[in-house]
Amino acid sequence: MSRTNLKALSDEALVDLMAELGEPAFRARQLVHWMYERAAVSVEEITEFSKELRKKLSRRAYIGAIELSGRVSSEDGTEKFLYTLKDGLSVECVLIPDNDRMTLCVSSQVGCAMGCRFCKTGSMGFLRNLEAYEMVDQLLAVSGLMAPRQITNIVFMGMGEPLKNLEELSEALRKITGLIGMSPRRITVSTCGIAPEIHRLSQKAPGVNLAVSLNASSDRVRDSIMPVNRRYPLEELMQACRSFPLQKGRRITFEYVLLEGVNDSIADAHKLVGLLSGLSAKVNLIPFNPYEGAEFDPPSEETVLAFQDYLVEAGIKTFIRKSKGGDAMAACGQLWCREPARDKD
Ligand code: SAH
Ligand code: SF4
After folding, report:
1. Which residues have CB under 8 Å from 333's CB, separation 6+?
2. Is residue 109 within 6 Å of ligand 1 at its C-beta?
């Protein structure tokens, strides 16, 4: 019989497995504690279990873990990690230190099906969803490498569209908040705008922050760069954002990748102000990060600053986010993560 990955089992299935081994239910809870709070990567490490139980359990099951297969540091302090999954596919996650913060940018899928025209992950197409434990493992694995320094924030802005994998994402968030003990206020989920899932996210993972990759302020432009907009046009998306429950002082982050001559005019900024009116919002402007074969260019610095000024004048908190880790990492792929927004929390 092939052995089972304990991290891929639900809490109930773990209790059942323990029962099959003649063990009481609390052993399942101990196991969960060892896997997530103590980051055990083998049954042998669980010294709270008798030798006999460890042996019995090892015959039936193992603790799965993603495997580090690459690590690159950049001059700005950013580190990128490549992890190989059980089926040989890989995902990347990126650690972004920033004074007292250490933000980990986590992937939710291998590739992405959404096909945004400015995104390299999009051009890979979709390979598969990550299982919940494969998302949690990115945090556990990088935490292990960084100890005693602690990861303080998580952003789901790596590969993939998290709201297209909402069930597994919610389970991962449940483990990260409930077992590992990170506050949902320190977690941000970024979406290209799957409007109906925004509401479900707020129900399934109360208190996590929302980031929306807006990237255009009219349906005409958004349709042309983000196919998802034809399914969920701006009006529906902004309605979903308006209904997203926010605690006092919190804001929705709107990401806006600036593409030269496409979405970077003052008229675009003007429409953006209109879209965001009445919302507790902040905007991250991201000059397009070019890659080989890309069909866009970043705008000039003047254009970026003029766009920012227009929004700021209109009373919108607006930051310019440079893609981090461009130097050392350029060779091994694109890096989509940006400096974490410094919001109070
Ligand atoms: N799928 C989710 C999260 C991953 S993409 C989403 O779309 O929100 C993370 C961010 O990277 C998005 O805001 C996206 O607009 C941005 N991005 C993608 N390609 C980029 C590029 N070439 N340059 C700059 N930002 C990019
Ligand atoms: Fe997918 Fe996000 Fe890239 Fe769009 S921007 S293709 S949703 S990863």
Report:
1. 92, 120
2. no
pLDDT at 325: 52
- The residues carrying an active-site annotation are 92, 332
Spatial CA neighbour of 340 closest among 207, 214, 186: 186
Residues of the chain with pLDDT under 50: 327-345
Element containing residue 122 per DSSP (H, E): helix 120-124
Place of tokens 């397009």: 288
pLDDT of residue 42: 94
Q: Which amino acid is at 343?
A: D
Q: Answer yes or no: are the C-beta atoms of 65 and 41 closer than 8 Å.
A: yes
Confidence at residue 76, expressed as pLDDT on a 0 to 100 scale:
83
User: What distance in angstroms lies between residue 207's CA and the mean position of ligand 1's atoms?
Assistant: 22
Distance CA 22, CA 17 (A): 9
Strand partners, 126: 111
Task: Say yes or no: CB of residue 288 within 6 Å of ligand 1.
Answer: yes
Domain ranges of the chain: 4-62, 67-328
Residue 1 pLDDT: 64
- Total-model pTM: 0.93
Fold of 67-328: TIM Barrel (3.20.20)
Other Cβ atoms less than 10 A from the Cβ of 194: the count is 21
The rounded Cα 214 to chain-centroid distance in angstroms is 16
- pLDDT recorded at residue 322: 77
- Top-tier CATH class for 4-62: mainly alpha
Q: How much of the chain is helix, strand and coil, in % rounded to 5?
A: 40, 20, 40
